[in-house]
């Protein structure tokens, strides 16, 4: 495993994990917003 002694890979994995966690949080936040207000209907009932 001498190929991975460079500090670049350490920071690359840390950054990748942080970006993934933030992206999951943003996804959860956008999906938890209330739906937009109901639009008026024309009175038809299906």
Structure description:
The chain is built from one helix and no strands. The protein has one helix spanning 7-31. The mean pLDDT is 84. The termini are far apart. It has 46 residues and is mainly α.
Order of helices and strands: H
Helix content: 40-55%
Strand content: under 5%
Total count of strands: 0
Mean pLDDT: 84
Amino- and carboxy-terminal Cα gap: 66 Å
Query: What summary fits the major beta sheet?
Result: none
Q: State the shape.
A: rod-shaped
Number of helices: 1
What structural class do helix, strand and pairing data support? mainly alpha
Low-pLDDT stretches are: none
Using only C-alpha atoms, the radius of gyration works out to 23 Å
Name its key features:
mainly alpha, rod-shaped, 46 residues
Brief characterization of the structure:
This protein is mainly alpha-helical and 46 residues long.
Give the secondary structure arrangement, pairings included.
Elements: H1 7-31
């Amino acid at each position: 495993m001498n190929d991975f002694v460079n500090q670049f890979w350490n920071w690359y994995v840390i950054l990748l994990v942080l970006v993934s966690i933030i992206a999951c949080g943003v996804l959860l936040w956008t999906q938890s917003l209330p739906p937009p207000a109901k639009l008026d209907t024309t009175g038809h009932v299906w």
